[in-house]
Amino acid sequence: MSIQYKNSHDFEKPELERLFLSVGWSSGHYPDKLVTAMKNYHTVISAWDGDRLVGMICAMDDGIMNAYVHYLLVDPDYHGQGIGRKLVETIKQKYKDYLRIAVIAYNDELTFYENFGFKKSNDSSPMFITSLWT
User: Is the pTM of this model over 0.85?
Assistant: First the structure.
């Protein structure tokens, strides 16, 4: 079956929970919050194998200069099929006229993003405050 890509903000809790937990992300334990978050992103591109959500990329932007990729995830059962590549290329195309597309990448993801032209900053570091919801 071929992968279909959709630009939509509407998701069901179980499909988000399954996808996020498939990659080991703790946010999958908060599907109610994920449903709301997806509605609030400026851009959400999802990848589907039939009715199974197998990947997504989410970005926020200021409307003209800066876009921030917050989520990029692909179900491990679908790794190596070019889904992540297609999602990143779609975001790059959407924001091609912006001055900057920023992403926070974990060290083991750097090569993946560098293959798309992203460069690691030498003069800044990502910073977080992480809250565990109850």
Answer: yes
